[in-house]
Fold:
Amino acid sequence: MKLLEAVEAVLREAGGPLHYKEITERVLAKRLWSTEGQTPARTLNSTLAVDIQENGSESLFVRTAPGVFGLKHARTTRSAGTPRSVAQDTTSRKLGTQEIKNLARQIVKAHPEGIRYGQLITLILDEHPNTPRNTVQGSVWNLDAQFRTRSINPCVDSSSPGLQERRNKTNTRAFRSPAARGDVL
Structure:
């Protein structure tokens, strides 16, 4: 069983949030997960923290206090057939970094003619105003490098003289989908 699955099982059984050391003790006692590492509690703590950071609202887990984790209620109370978008209000919550990256990819794909970096940031913030601007900027600043082989590459607007030289110094980067570049997906 994977570590996150084991944590989920323990938290469901407990019925509420637990400190990561208690979660580790229960996971190991029930033999749901094994490790040869010297600090399994720290491994579990960092694994949960990374899952919450990377997956944002898509994560099963929530940190209720320093070192204390529980299951998200929206995830456990919605019926199996109810989509997440119906189960929770997506505009009033903060997005995680992976969610921002995925949203940015969708926006770029929706603009085959290309989109400027600043416009991309604005569109994301308009849709999710509770997400901090710095989080959005930090998630998409190197979007072209993150998804180079998949679907997003920077484009240079030929109508703007000197853009190539300024590209890495200012907010004048633009992203273009592969279809706009003529790439085969």
User: Anything to note?
Assistant: The chain has eleven helices and six strands. The first helix runs from residue 3 to 14. The two ends are 35 Å apart (CA to CA).
